[in-house]
Amino acid sequence: MLNIALPKGRLGEKVYAMFAKAGFECPALMENSRKLIFDNEAAGVRYFWVKPSDVAIYVERGAADIGVAGKDILLEYRPDVYELLDLNVGKCRMAVAAPAGFRDDMNRTLRVATKFSRIARDYYTSIGRDIDIIHLNGSIEIAPILGLSDVIVDIVETGTTLRENNLSVIEEIVPISARLIANKAGFKFRTEQIEKLTEGLRKEVQEA
Amino acid sequence: MMIDDRVMNRQERISFRLRSLYSEYGYERYRMSKFEEYDLYSRNKDFLFSEGVITFTDTTGKLMALKPDVTLSIVKNRKDTPGMLQKLYYHENVYRVSAAADGFREQTQVGLECMGEVDGACIAEVLKLAAESLKLCSPKFVLEISHLGILNAFVDAIAPDGAVKREILRCAGQKNLHGISRVCREHGLAEGADKALQALLGLYGTPRTVMPKIRELAAEYGAEEMAACLGQAVAGFTGTELESHILIDFSATGDLQYYNGIAFKGFIEGIPGSVLSGGQYDALMKKMGRKDRAIGFAVFLDMLERLTEEEDSRA
């Protein structure tokens, strides 16, 4: 049985459609219910819905053989997993955003509010800028408005939330999309199934 | 008096079986102190499995550390043995930062080291012992073997050094082929520059199925000798009961500052990470002023806690 962790929400539903098309169907998954685990013994798969940021943990710890996680999560938490495929869905970008008229004063330490401390630290280290990280868990956009930070580092999809809070992207750090990940040990023992699924998904990505 | 092994826990039973196996093959027990001067680790930080070392000042004012690694101590404390082969095994505790524990953790390792005139036969014996060690832990195991020299030759052809090379090697370790293409694109490398590397990383399987293709690919990059060395190292498995458990996989990587040649990792079904890790580390020996060659591996006994009783009894 191949255990697959999918991120709860719209992205997970979109990804499941890709998995089903690749021959790994589990119709019960799309029924309205509060269940979180679904089996299809005939297809040899068990799906479970988990919080998107937890998918990599389930896969790294072997509770799931494979899963779908955003590149943002993989860069931030660096789980020891295989990254088998860029699914090319859930596309957005990790960016630095600042209030209109912002100018970086190089005489001062830059205050950066973010949920993604490691990505922010790596980025600013790469350009040699001294920063003060303010780790927040949500509503990052209000940090510069309240004077808590100078800029933010966050995921930007359409930019609407930024615009509504008088912020704009001043630097793009890295493009983000959903990735197919696999547990390193699980891959060794379920290679055939995982490779079949990966190839099916690769074709869909190429045809899209 | 015979010892009733029912009084032992699983890791204890396995550690005695492993020690007995290594003794049968002529390996001698190597014992060492729990402490080592901190300087040894500060000079070889990248060799360690994790950052962070527990330090203390001893009675003479020296900064000491609780050993986070065994191999470095063995290399430091023994002398070159020209023309000879020294075969050692150990059973030691190490102290490392564990992400899972969010702090330091004591971990138990049983492993072996071969130092001196390490030749093809010695490498083949170490690989055989690695496979036998896994078999003693569980019948459902895989030993994946790679050759860092071959991987390095293919990566060098794209990006000989620096950050790009590191990034490509990191992607290789994750089987992240799309990531390698992205790195090449972003750094303006010629279209298709990574084609051969992608082909090498795409090869995954038993030696019998992938070695012919590896020899063919390696010939294009002047790595025939290394491919022959890999072929010789795995040839001993052909026709044995271990053969179906051996896989060649170039995603088994290691830090090229320390490791070279054959690298390998062992996996057991039901345990999420590698339970055995090893390889040739001539580069570390050279860095520490030794002329000898070396190869070794460690079995991480703590990882075996997750084996079910059923799996244990089958071993």
Annotation field: number of helices of chain B:
12
Level of helix content of chain B?
A: 25-40%
Round the mean pLDDT of chain A to the nearest integer and report it. Answer: 93
The ordered string of helix (H) and strand (E) elements of chain A is EHEEHEHEEEHEHEHEEHH
Structural class of chain B: alpha+beta
Largest sheet of chain A: 6 strands, mixed
Distance between the termini of chain B: 25 Å
Total of DSSP H or I helical runs spanning 4+ residues of chain A: 8
Report the portion of residues of chain A in β strands.
25-35%
What low-confidence regions of chain A span 5 or more consecutive residues with pLDDT below 50?
none
Oligomer: heterodimer
Largest interface, by Cβ-Cβ below 8 angstroms: which chains and how many residues each? A-B, 19 and 20 residues
Number of strands of chain B: 12
Shape of chain A: elongated
Task: Give the helices and strands of chain B as they follow along the chain.
Answer: HEEHEEHEEHEHHHHEHHEEEHEH
- Major pleated sheet of chain B: 9 strands, mixed
- The tally of strands of chain A reads 11
Q: Over the alpha carbons, how many angstroms does the gyration radius of chain B reach?
A: 20 Å
> Numbering strands along the chain, what is their spatial order in the largest sheet of chain A?
2-3-1-4-11-5
Structural class of chain A: alpha/beta
| Helical amount of chain A | 25-40%
